[in-house]
Write a structure and sequence with these properties.
The protein has 478 residues and is α+β, with helices and mostly antiparallel strands. The protein contains 17 helices and 21 strands. The chain starts with a strand and ends in a 12-residue tail after the last helix.
Amino acid sequence: MTATTLTRPEATLPAEVLAQIQQVVGATYVTTHPADMAGRVADHRGLYQGHALALVRPGSTAEVAAVMRLCHAARLPVVPQGGNTGLVGGSVPRDAVILATDRLTAIRDRDPLNSTMTVEAGCLLLTIQQTAEEMDRLFPLSLASEGSCQIGGNLATNAGGTAVLRYGTTRELVLGLEVVLPDGAILSDLTGLRKNNTGYDLRHLFIGSEGTLGIITAAVLKLHPRPARRATAMVGCADPEAALALYDRMRARDADSLTTFEYIDRTALQMVVDHGPGCSDPMAERHQAYALVELTAPDPEADLDARLEHTLGAAFEAGDIADAVLASSEAQRAALWALRENLAEVQKAEGASIKHDVAVPVSRVAEFIAAARQGCLALMPTARVCAFGHFGDGNIHFNLSRPLDMTDAEFLTRTEAVNRVVHDIVVAMGGSISAEHGIGLTRRAELRHYKDPVALRVMEGIKAALDPLGLMNPGKLL
């Protein structure tokens, strides 16, 4: 698979600006050597190859602000970068300064009684989860990349994950932000308040803005009670419609404890079984659709296993499910979760894939999967549909893996046609072409094609007001 090149190697950082930046952050934390920046100029999927003027790693918000003032004065574009784990090319530089947040790792405040934690943007998501556990609390954002992604990037992309059904997206887990604006001004709004009705709620401008409006340097995160009990099961269903019927049943019976309802089709599961480390088929018979479901509760006396068994028993009697495997130990629970968490990576072993991160109303997820499958196979009969995702919040990763009779390059020439088929169906169902991955470079043209023109005009007006020189992560999103 060949990456799209975004390079213009003749572009360089003026020597005087380089010297000024080095004086601010220290020469150790500034480099212009291509070898030192190699891992920073390409995206996680290998779709884009960019070019950076420099890699700068400030160690404080004050240093971030000083660097931004220098870049603003010199009219230099800046790309904020966290763990660089995004899937749409949003942190790939095009003749820009990479401002990395990996040194901003302080946990500034812990407040168990207020159920908040104030963290800097470079903190790993896993570190935040572990710190919350030490406080006997839960930070529920959970992603496959949590060991390498940084909270600043999670905020900038409004990350979703496997617990949105119960706790909401990243946007709903943030109470306050600290942001360095394009001109170097610092917006300090690190409030831990649940109620604050004093004008525009500015945090929501920056959450999901993909680094195009400013650089998030710190945040006040909302914590939740830590689960003391869990019950986990993998369920086999005849088709997506049966899985949706199971979800509706569980939502009615177990809404106060239902945390996860993840959908996996047979093709996706088989890929994990074939390529996932230590993964095996959870059931003796194969099914067309599977659901990974989990109940959680903070009450250590809650008998969630019995509750889950009762619900699944009723679903079996009604014909909604064909089989189920309940985890009876933490090791079994981890094995079931591995079938879901390895999905994104194992697809690489099957060749190139055309990926879609879409959302439709929950009531239409089964209908969408059927319609998108039919439309894509009509276009490319030998394509392998790999559908999985967050059934309970309507977010489906509808991916196509390369047909066995095609090369990667030939398959990827069909990307635009496949996108049109899938996204036309999504929009006709009142859905979104990007549920949690963002727009970045990959979906920029699609956003222009589908987004309401008035909404685009408002977004462009906000961008012009905060970044009139267009220096923040240029070429992304808008």
